[in-house]
Structures are given as C-alpha cells and as structure tokens.
Amino acid sequence: MWRAGELSSKTCLSDIVKFATVMDPEAAKTAKESLDLAFHMSNLLNTGLDRHTLSVLIALCDLGLNPEALAAVVKELRSEPVSSSSAPIRKP
C-alpha cells in the first residue's frame, strides 16, 4: 500500500486508482478478505458503517491519515442534521 512518505501534493485519485488496478491477484484477494473481516467486526460493534464507507476510511488510513482524526470527522458528520436539499426552498 501507499505510505505517507510516498504521497505528495501532486498525488491524486487517478494515481491511487492506477496503483489499485495493477495489484496482483493474491494481494487483491488478501485486501478483499481483510475488508470482509473489518466489515464483519464493524457490524458486530454496531458502527453503522457500510462496506464502501469502511473501505474509504481504511484507504485513508493507508494513505497516512490519522485514524483518530477520521473517527472524529465521522462522528461530526453524523451529528450534523441531514438536509434534503442544498438549495434553499423558495416560497411563491
């Protein structure tokens, strides 16, 4: 996986996707099994995280982001009310 020291300001999502597409089949299988295990533990702990969100959080940790900071962001986002629309509703 990527290490924090390998990232630069020029690293972008397309670079990460290219890296993932050249992953050998055994590494891909191991990654899938690891995600399956993490998702199972997540469900046992009632985190409410779906598989996609969990995989994004794991990928961000692999990129060197602080797990505690990510957890704080998830908690903050959950505490904010969800709006049905980002645009204000005009009354006629």
From TrEMBL:
Q: Provide the GO biological process annotations.
A: gamma-tubulin complex localization; microtubule nucleation by interphase microtubule organizing center; mitotic spindle assembly
Highest taxon of the lineage = Eukaryota
Any one Pfam family here would be MOZART1
UniProt main location, coarse: cytoplasm
Q: State the similarity comment.
A: Belongs to the MOZART1 family.
Quote the cellular component terms of the Gene Ontology held in the record: gamma-tubulin ring complex; interphase microtubule organizing center; spindle
In its keyword annotation, does this UniProt entry include Nucleus? no
UniProt source species: Salix purpurea (Purple osier willow)
Localization in the cell: Cytoplasm, Cytoskeleton, Microtubule organizing center
What name does UniProt use for this protein?
MITOTIC-SPINDLE ORGANIZING PROTEIN 1A-LIKE
Q: Read off the InterPro entries from this record.
A: MZT1
Q: Which UniProt keywords apply?
A: Cytoplasm, Cytoskeleton
